[in-house]
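To: structure desk
From: M.T.
Subject: fold request, one chain
Message: Could you run this one when you get a chance? Sequence is below, nothing fancy, just the single chain.
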Amino acid sequence: MSANTRRDFLRTTTGAGVGAALGMVPVPLAGSPAVLLRNVTPVCIASSNGLAAVDRAMQELADGSYTIDAVVRGVNLVEEDPEDMSVGYGGLPNADGVVQLDSSLMHGPTRGAGAVACLEGVKRPSLVALDVMRYTDHHLLVGEGAQRFAASMGHPIEDILTDGARRAWVQWRAGLGSAGEYLTPAESGEPVRPFERPEGLDDELLDSFDGVRPHGTINCNIVDRNGDLSSVTTTSGLAFKIPGRVGDSPIIGAGMYCDNDVGAAGSTGRGEAVIKTCGAHTVIELMRQGTSPTDACLEALRRIVRWTVEDRLLTEAGRPAFDVNYYAVNKRGEYGAAAIYSGARFAVNVDGRSRLEDSAYLFQRTS
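Reply: Done. Structure tokens follow.
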């Protein structure tokens, strides 16, 4: 048992004490001191690509894992999946054809936090972020230093550019050449190796990219029966990004935030918009004031809409030409998710069942 998990155990047993024995735990309410409520129904919520992740996280929790270990092992399933081109192994590379991964996490009971950004050669960056939290006095390591730290902790350094991700990058690069310097895989006569595309990356997009670069992420948040919380976000970031670009995912308070007095929240979508509005932290602060998880997500999205003023980022209707999704669970086990546009879904496991649910939204998608 690590130092952090020992502190987690001691804090839970001594802090809850008699209340836990009576089936009650302290839960703060907006504007009032902590009060005792009945045991919380454990809940795990994630982005739509996290159906297997919430299932595994809740199984880990049932088997006795701490909340932080449960959510990390959940997202590891997505990070390890070579067919998911938005996270971990198989993630789409940057403009130089190099996969750079980002991740951040927080452990509610110990107030611990760790993150890595622009990490190369490690399939599961969330595990490195966990090591940053547990074995350093820092919260964020980046680039070459993050890779050296990962190697020192025993994480293998390997080539994580899959054939599918490489083909997608070659296709994108061919679209940059004004005089046809680069050829697409089809033009080169390269045999097609079929692969399963993740949600949001369809054949038409793969064939053209048409100025649109896909991005994807998984955020996962959990609360256990004692009301203890954890959160993790992990991603390969914006496809074909400028090397060194960092989105919201490894930024504590932007792509993910957890306050054990209140709840846990995270995001997917355009990271730059989330960073500017301190997205996940905003959701938590709204819940601290008594706002429900769904309404807190919606209000945080309204702030993004108000902050999006650049013409290049607006539709003809004056609305954001991109989407952002928030996911949240509070200390009571209430959960919710919302997106700027309709059609988004999220994964949740509650009462032993994993399922996809529709997200709330601000605007109806018109196309």
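Reply (cont.): The longest strand covers residues 112-119. Let me know if you need anything else for the meeting.
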